[in-house]
Every structure is written in C-alpha cells, then in structure tokens.
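User: hey, got a sec? need Aminoacyltransferase FemA folded
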Amino acid sequence: EFLSPDELKFCAARLNTQVYGEFLQQSLDKQQTEVRKAEDALAKNPENVKAQNRLRAAQEAVASGDVKLKQLDELKANGANPILAVGLFISHANEMVFLAGGSYDDYASFRAPFSLHWFAMQQAMQAGITRYNFYGTNGEFSGNPEQHGVYLFKRGFGGVSEERIGYFSLVSTPWVEKLRELAGGAKSFSRKILRRG
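Assistant: Yep! Here you go:
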C-alpha cells in the first residue's frame, strides 16, 4: 500500500527576521533602561553592591544584544527569512514518524529542531494521532554512544525509548558498498574543507 500525499509532511523552520529583530530591539531597549536605573542608583550610592551587580548584568546583556543585532544584519544581507531546519514526517494509522531531517550548524543557537518537532507534535495531536516516533535512536544507552546527544534531545521531549527489531543490510556486491562508503567520506571531507574557506 502506498502512502497518500496527506500522510507525508515536509516541514521547514524559518527565521522571521522582522519579528526576531523587533524582539531583539525590545530586549535591548529594556536592558538599556536597566543600565540607566543602575547608574542612577550608583550615582546616589556608589557603594551599592546590588546596583553594581545589576549594572554589570545589564551592560553584558546590552553587549550581547548588540552582537545579536549585528548577526541579524548579516542574516538579512544573505537573504530574508533563512531556513534553519527541515524534517520529513510520515503519519500513518495512529503514529507520526520523524523519518529524516537536518539543520544548519551556523543556526544552532536558534534551536530550530526543537520548534520543528514541537510543531509536528502539535499537528499530530490536532489530527488525533497519539504516538510520535523520533525513529532511529541508537540502541546503546550506556551514556557515551556515538549519538548520545541525539538520544538526549529526543528524550528531552518526555518520551521513552522502546526497543524494536533492528535493521539489517544485505551487501550483495561488496565493492559497490565500499564505493558508497568512500563517497560518503569524501562528501564529509569536502564539507569540512568548504566550511573552513
């Protein structure tokens, strides 16, 4: 049985640069007000430790806000509303499966995969689907598996791991499989080189 188009969902998380810019500016304005209040308090009592701490924290927040606004200007220069993460979801019967997805390392600070999964879960609940499957969690939970961070990300949504039958590969032509592995390694190597340049 083939899946119908309404059972396949391709989702993309974009950054709305206008809304994000407004949020950053409001936060920056608030912190600049805090700087002025702390400076006024220190003008009245230079030994006020609480005001000194408030001033230091507000100044750090202002500096951070300035950096984020400059980064936003760079994002806008590269094109409006960049895609941060994508995912392919399949819903069938009473389960939605996250089949595959990815995100850009450059945009990791936006935590787009969290938003993407949250959106998909909300869509699943609205459709009456009660099971959400992250799919593909490594079965080694010793604390240091290769993709333990992925496991922790998935567990962060409050789910549980269920052990299911694994997947197996039948290699009928070993030289083709070796060629595929080499191509994957070359692709990974070229990405690293391009990021440096």
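Quick note: The chain has a mean pLDDT of 85. Let me know if you need anything else on Aminoacyltransferase FemA.
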